[in-house]
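HUMAN:
Just now I want nothing more than another pair of eyes on a protein record. I would be glad if you read both lines and explained how they fit together. I have put the entry right below:
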Amino acid sequence: MKLSEEFILSQPIDSYKKLSYPLIFFAIFNAFYAFVDIFWAGILGNEALVVVGLCSPLLLIILTIGLSIGQGTNAVISRFLGANDIKNASNTFIHGMLFSGIISILLPLIGIPFLEDIFHLMNINYQNINLLNQYMIPLLIFSFIFIFNHILSECIQSEGDSKRPTYYIILGNIINLILCPIFIFVLKLEV
C-alpha cells in the first residue's frame, strides 16, 4: 500500500501505524527462521543444537549484510522517488542488485576456504568441526537467498509499501517450516 504525502502529513499517527505494523511483523517472522532451525535441531539432539547455536553469529552476519545493503538502497531510492526522479531510483535499484550479487559470490568464495580459521577466531574449540562445516557451507553457498530477500524487501518498502515484503517473509518462513523436516528427516541431510 502506498501512502500519499498529504495522508502522511495530515495524519502522521495513522500513517506511522500503517507503515510500522507490517515492519514489526516483518522483523518477528525474520527472527522466526532461527527458532525453526533450533526446533528441528533439538529433535536431532544436543550436538545439532550446539552446531546451530555456534553458527548463529555467522548467519546473523550474512543476514545483516543483506539488511544493510537493502536499507542503504532503500534510503537512496526513497530520496529519488521523493524527488520524482524515477530514472535514478531505477539506477539505484540496479546498482543495489549488482552489489548484492557481487557480495553473494564473494561470501562463499572467501568464507568456505577460511571457515575453520573463522571458527578459531570466534574461539570455537568444538571437537566436531566437520559438523560445523556441514551446517555453514550450505548457508554460505546459498547466502544470496538471504541477501536478495532483504534487498528486495527493502526496495519494495522504499515505495511506501510495507505489507508486501511482510507477506513474502511469512511465506518464506512457512516454506522453511515445511522443508526443514523434509531435508532433515526424509532426505537424511541432518542439520
